[in-house]
Amino acid sequence: MIKVVACLGNPGPEYSTTRHNVGWWLADRLAESWGLGRFRPAGGASAVTGEVHGHEVHLLKPLTYMNRSGVVLAPLRHMEGFDIARDLLVVVDDVSLEPGRTRFRAGGSAGGHNGLRSIEGTLGTREYARLRIGVGGPPPGADLADWVLSSPPLEERRAILAAVAGVVGGVDLWLAEGIEAAMNRYNSPGNPGSAQD
């Protein structure tokens, strides 16, 4: 069974440390944890593939820039046996969660996130699993686009990186048991680095 984990961000070294690219931070951590090797260009994404927990896993970093992330996932609509609601996990930054918090969701609106909006438009559905990684919101009067395209200060970066490390097990659980299991275990307010759904 094929599983796809799409971690959203923007290509280019100027974006690598920004809040909008925390999905890519998790992609790197997952590739290391799963022993998948180096990412390579493939179909509009930087990708790596391997067997993880009995599944053929495609770990993707779309290279289309955030607001066109859905383009890379368009082929999934026609992949035989692929169930978007069951087999796709999208990882994004979330300004509504404070740094160090994470949240799995089984579906829902884009919530103003351009990457999710692009995916929803391309796939024609909101019913796909997503993992939101908190980056905190901008201060009053600050521009949201400038905020997500800037780098967090050291203390916040450390909190985000700790959350990224802590949620690898949640992605493992999604692979093994599905989104409901990941939500039930990793969205519990008692777990560090998570936020209640």
Strand proportion, as a percent range, falls in: 15-25%
CATH topology: Rossmann fold
What is the number of strand segments? 7
CATH superfamily, by name, is Peptidyl-tRNA hydrolase
Number of DSSP helical runs? 7
- H/E series, N to C? EHEEEHHEEHEHHH
Share in helix: 25-40%
Write the layout of secondary structure elements.
Blueprint: E1 2-7, H1 22-34, E2 40-42, E3 45-52, E4 55-62, H2 70-73, H3 84-87, E5 88-94, E6 102-105, H4 114-123, E7 129-134, H5 144-148, H6 154-177, H7 179-186
Parallel strand pairs: 1-4, 1-5, 5-7
Antiparallel strand pairs: 2-3, 3-4, 6-7
Helix pairs in contact: 1-6, 6-7
Description:
- The protein has seven helices and seven strands, in the order βαβββααββαβααα.
- It is α/β, with parallel strands linked by helices.
- Strand 3 and strand 4 form a beta hairpin.
- The two termini are 28 Å apart.
- The longest helix is centred in the C-terminal third of the chain and has 24 residues.
- Helices cover 35% and strands 21% of the residues.
- A seven-stranded mixed β-sheet has the order 2-3-4-1-5-7-6.
- It has one domain: Rossmann fold (3-Layer(aba) Sandwich).
- The chain is globular, with a radius of gyration of 15 Å.
Spell out the key features of this protein:
Rossmann fold, alpha/beta, globular, 197 residues, seven-stranded mixed β-sheet
